[in-house]
Amino acid sequence: MVIPAQNIKLKLARTAKQLSQQQLAERVEVTRQTISLIEQGKYNPSLKLCISICKALDKTLDDIFWDDSL
């Protein structure tokens, strides 16, 4: 399975901030499983959740969720 680039960007941004999936999940008020599914490319988060994730990671929507291959 090929993991989309934006999901790799999310994991890289999360680990750069030294956050576990659980810690990020708590900051954006979702479950750890939700963060895991997003990183695996198995769940498409709402725009509201995308914005919350970006704020928690000090990134823009483009930084994490824009697909550079388009």
UniProtKB/TrEMBL annotation:
| Sequence ranges assigned to domain HTH cro/C1-type in this UniProt record | 10-64
- A Pfam match is HTH_3
Keyword DNA-binding on entry: yes
User: Which Gene Ontology molecular-function terms are recorded?
Assistant: DNA binding
- Name the residues that span the membrane: none
Gene3D superfamilies hit by this protein: lambda repressor-like DNA-binding domains
Q: Which SMART domains match?
A: HTH_XRE
- Answer whether the UniProt record assigns the keyword Signal to this protein: no
The UniProt keywords, alphabetically, are:
DNA-binding
Q: What PANTHER family does the record point to?
A: TRACRIPTIONAL REGULATORY PROTEIN-RELATED-RELATED, TRANSCRIPTIONAL REGULATOR
User: What is the protein named?
Assistant: Helix-turn-helix transcriptional regulator
Q: Which organism is it from?
A: Proteinivorax hydrogeniformans
